[in-house]
Give the backbone structure.
Amino acid sequence: MRVCVCTVVHHPEDARILHRQIRALLDAGHEVTYIAPFRACNATPWRQISPVDVPRATGRRRLRALRAAHRALTEHAAYADVILLHDPELMVSLPREVRRRTVVWDVHEDTAAALSAKGWVPAPARPLLRPAVHRLERRSERRHRLLLAEEGYRARFREDHPVVPNTTYVADAPPGPPDGRRAVYVGQLSRARGALDMVHMARALAAEGILVELIGAADADIRNAIRDAQREGILRWYGFVPNDRALRIAEGAMAGLALLHDEPNYRHSMPTKIVEYMARGVPVISTPNPPAVDIVESAGCGLIVPFGDPGAAAKAVLRLRDDPALRTELGERGHRAARERYHWPVHAARFVAQLEAWAGREHLLAAEPVPEF
């Protein structure tokens, strides 16, 4: 099977797109053409894929990237059995050559709800854009195939669509016990994801000899605040690091931070970083978004702190620092639960089988003679 994967919004080394889905396709022996902003992100494509470079869509600068992606999709559609798209923007005005193929939209987020957390979208425009997003979702559902990243996304659609959850690779054996010297965050840094809360928390913890490490790219409106904090020596910011290396850095930390704000898009989305911390034996400190609470409390792998309260988050870190037995127990419980419930290869097999089924069915339908009336 030949699969053409495309994103202009996400980093080419996005954990879900590259490290999970594309890796699963390659492991299954399929060919992958990957249209993504490699040069814009200074990313080196894997040797096993056929890369196609396009500009990156950032903030309000999106039209050039979308036009380039549509040209690339037009060129490569004829060679693909399945076209896998990762950005809702790409579903607008798909080229005719693409619409004739098996098109799959991988739905990463609640697009309409996420508008409130996108600083580049003017606040007055958000209520106007939500109905347009819902219309795009309904049209895409009628015309194409959908994969959902969350069970909670089902209610947005009329039909039943397969769910490919954002899980991770979990080693058989648990890693070593967490240390008492650092707390980590892995993922995109933004206001809504608690980046400024972590800066305030880091300032309090630095006086206790504890280092906060932030691993991920930062939104433009908070970048200076994080840089200033790093210059002060109160935290360490790595910038974007590919997911596999980021998690190796996180391993051994006494706390993995997930201080998401109470945003509509987060109320029914599983925070992947929590599962990634668990997989690495790192105790979790999270705000009380319902999916996070479900995971952390059912696994007994962390502590819950109030929204927007960096002082409470700092106290939770100090509690783990002062209780080595507790942080070891939480880390072991998290790893055990992650291995049982969230090991990606189990979901990878279903993901690949679903694309194979869709590709095979479309080929059979295309091969059937058209009845005459």
